């Protein structure tokens, strides 16, 4: 099971956590932190951590390296087990301002865009990326599968 921790979570991400069932082979519960920020904060994070001085929609900060497609075993990551016994995958920052703008730009609702950005960020935490066409295709396929489980597919 995936646990998503978000301070002031008015959006209730439990449905997304449920939609991730079967996406990762693991022998323990997984956890991720989500921080909802404004444009100024995401630009600061992007500038300081990626040397890109621009507002972006989502940033992911994986806690684990080289885990894409691998079985996640609790005993392999003893330093990454949180106080509740979950394997901590990392943190995600989502810009609420860009989420609203993109929802309007793409012609769908705020909730769909927010859940897509969080899904995208979670797959980054799991080692997926979109640097090559092959990687992008693989990541998009996984994202769309989760979004369909949520009833938010295209």
From the structure above, extract its key features:
single chain, 154 residues, alpha/beta, 4-stranded mixed β-sheet, 5 helices, 4 strands, 40% helix, globular
**Which range does the strand content fall in?**
15-25%
Q: Give average pLDDT, whole number.
A: 92
Q: How much helix, percentage-wise, in residues?
A: 40-55%
Major sheet attributes: 4 strands, mixed
What class would the helix/strand composition place it in? alpha/beta
- Give helix and strand order, one letter per element, not per position: EHEHEEHHH
Name the shape in a single word: globular
The number of strands is 4
Oligomer: single chain
Distance between the termini: 25 Å
Biggest sheet, spatial arrangement of strands: 1-2-4-3
Specify Rg, calculated over alpha carbons.
15 Å
Unreliable runs: none
Summed up, the helix count is: 5
Q: Can you give a write-up of this model?
A:
By secondary structure, this protein is an alpha/beta fold. It has five helices and four strands; from the N terminus they run E-H-E-H-E-E-H-H-H. Strands 1-2-4-3 form a four-stranded mixed sheet. Helix 1 (14-19) links the parallel strand 1 and strand 2. The mean pLDDT is 92.
Q: Can you lay out the helices and strands and say which pair or pack?
A:
Elements: E1 2-6, H1 14-19, E2 30-37, H2 39-50, E3 58-62, E4 87-95, H3 96-106, H4 110-125, H5 133-149
Parallel strand pairs: 1-2, 2-4
Antiparallel strand pairs: 3-4
């Amino acid at each position: 099971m995936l646990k998503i921790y978000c301070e002031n979570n008015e959006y209730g991400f439990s449905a997304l956590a449920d939609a991730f069932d079967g996406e990762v082979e693991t022998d323990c519960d997984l956890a991720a932190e989500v921080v909802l920020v404004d444009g100024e904060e995401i630009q600061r994070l992007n500038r300081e951590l990626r040397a890109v001085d621009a507002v972006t929609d989502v940033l992911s900060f994986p806690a684990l390296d080289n885990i894409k497609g691998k079985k996640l075993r609790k005993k392999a990551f003893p330093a990454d087990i949180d106080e509740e016994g979950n394997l901590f995958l990392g943190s995600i920052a989502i810009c609420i301002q860009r989420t609203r703008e993109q929802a309007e730009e793409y012609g769908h609702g705020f909730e769909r865009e927010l859940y897509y950005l969080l899904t995208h960020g979670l797959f980054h935490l799991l080692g997926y990326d979109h640097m090559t066409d092959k990687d992008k295709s693989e990541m998009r396929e996984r994202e769309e599968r989760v979004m369909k489980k949520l009833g938010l597919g295209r």
